[in-house]
Design a protein that fits this description.
about 300 residues, mainly alpha
Length: about 300
């Protein structure tokens, strides 16, 4: 399996796990910052265990990461994603949240040139336009002028998603120039996600402490949101994004807003409209064609 194919499959796995987030958040009767804090709390053991087993110890990896400012930037971007995503889901519709968060490829396309020197080709812009057009079609009937605060927070989550993608790539480039090694491809992104979860936990702690008693079902959902929807998903994503260019990784992850309504339909009985099916088809085509487009750059 080529490095690029492996990267695509890893990002697809992350999108599958992420897609359960909207439904899970709606099912937990707690404040947004408490939910984001609990998700981070339950995610940390999985991430630290991965560093311990896969990379020869969590503490050495964390000490190395703490000395790299770009990883702190990636950690802050990650914290912005997970906190703002929960807040937006509580303040506006899930459709608004997912659509506005997935403006991330636009920010990546605009910034990958200055930050990474990656040339954004016409096919990248066409695929981005196709995905954004498909999502507008997909959610067009559901978008509302209300929930302005939630909508703005969802856009901030999109900026955070773009920042995480770009800064992981910046760190990878810098590490390879410094050492000639690719060891940072898997280790450093996980360190950034660990640090980001620590930040999210600190932000949510006051709301976690005053959370009313939750049912066993709500706790089970929170555990799943932390261990699977956050920890396992980001382990897949950070490994995948290191193997793809920045625009492509975000485009592949756009499968998430197609899967999200499927879980909502199974969990609540809601079914997508004809417009949703048409928009979803356009997104799938855009992602599939861009991912399958032959690359002519040197290896």
């Amino acid at each position: 399996m080529s490095v690029r194919v492996k990267g695509i499959l890893l990002v697809l796995a992350a999108a599958l796990l992420w897609s359960s987030g909207g439904l899970g958040i709606k099912l937990v009767p707690a404040e947004a910052l408490a939910i984001s804090g609990f998700r981070a709390l339950f995610a940390l053991p999985v991430l630290l265990g991965f560093l311990q087993v896969r990379h020869g110890g969590a503490l050495p990896a964390l000490r190395e990461g703490l000395r790299r400012p770009v990883l702190w930037g990636a950690a802050a971007s990650y914290a912005v994603i997970v906190v703002c995503f929960v807040m937006a889901n509580k303040l506006t519709t899930a459709a608004n949240t997912i659509l506005l968060q997935y403006t991330a490829p636009v920010w990546v396309a605009l910034l990958s040139g200055p930050l990474l020197g990656e040339h954004v080709r016409l096919r990248d812009w066409l695929a981005t336009a196709g995905c954004l057009g498909g999502m507008a079609w997909f959610f067009g009937e559901q978008l509302t002028p209300g929930g302005l605060t939630g909508n703005l927070i969802a856009i901030v989550a999109g900026v955070g998603f773009a920042g995480l993608t770009l800064l992981i790539r910046v760190n990878q480039r810098a590490w390879q120039l410094e050492t000639g090694s690719t060891l940072a491809m898997d280790r450093h992104p996980v360190v950034a996600v660990v640090l980001g979860n620590v930040l999210a936990l600190c932000i949510g702690l006051p709301w976690m402490l005053r959370t009313a008693e939750l049912s066993p079902t709500a706790w089970a959902v929170l555990v799943a949101l932390g261990t699977l929807q956050i920890a396992c998903a980001y382990l897949c994503f950070t490994a995948g994004v290191a193997r793809l260019n920045a625009v492509e990784s975000n485009l592949v992850a756009m499968i998430e807003p197609i899967l999200n309504p499927l879980w909502v339909a199974l969990g609540t009985g809601e079914t997508p409209s004809t417009n949703a099916l048409a928009g979803g088809t356009l997104i799938l085509l855009s992602v599939t064609l861009r991912s399958a487009w032959p690359r002519r750059e040197p290896a």
